[in-house]
């Protein structure tokens, strides 16, 4: 039997589409949503450690204070803030605003810039309080 799928056209993919900011932010919004799932497991781990006793809590706190732990927390903070701003963008669209191409592109770029700025602000405040 002959392969009948050889004559079918291929679906458009990234080789055909040009990546635009709104497309990238949509993809990143989905990725940050998945990352928040795993980040929430870190919060649960921290809460369990707090409920388990001082020694385990100290160990978890030590780990989160290492370079790797801080990078994980930094990524979680950015993912949380980026996903929140992306959610506001989607909420605005749900209300029927912001569909113009130029505005939508500016909003996508602002989502990225805003999440980075907010992450820096949150960490600056957190480090200032700590020291």
Summary, kept brief:
It comes from Rhizobium tubonense. This protein is mainly α and 131 residues long.
Task: Please render the helix and strand layout as text.
Layout: H1 21-52, H2 54-65, H3 67-94, H4 101-130
Helix pairs in contact: 1-2, 1-3, 1-4, 3-4
**SSE-based structural type:** mainly alpha
Q: Count up the helices.
A: 4
CATH level 1 class label: Mainly Alpha
- Major sheet: none
User: Could you say what the CATH topology is called?
Assistant: 3 helical TM bundles of succinate and fumarate reductases
Distance between the termini: 73 Å
Key words describing this protein structure:
mainly alpha, metal-binding, 131 residues, heme, 3 helical TM bundles of succinate and fumarate reductases, 4 helices, transmembrane, membrane, elongated, SQR/QFR_C/D
Any overview of this molecule?
Part of an enzyme complex containing four subunits: a flavoprotein, an iron-sulfur protein, plus two membrane-anchoring proteins, SdhC and SdhD. The complex can form homotrimers. This is Succinate dehydrogenase cytochrome b556 subunit. Pfam families: Sdh_cyt. It contains four helices and no strands. The protein is mainly alpha-helical and 131 residues long. The protein has a single domain, classed as Fumarate reductase/succinate dehydrogenase, transmembrane subunit (3 helical TM bundles of succinate and fumarate reductases, Up-down Bundle). The longest helix is centred in the first third of the chain and has 32 residues. It is elongated. The N and C termini lie far apart (73 Å). The mean pLDDT is 91.
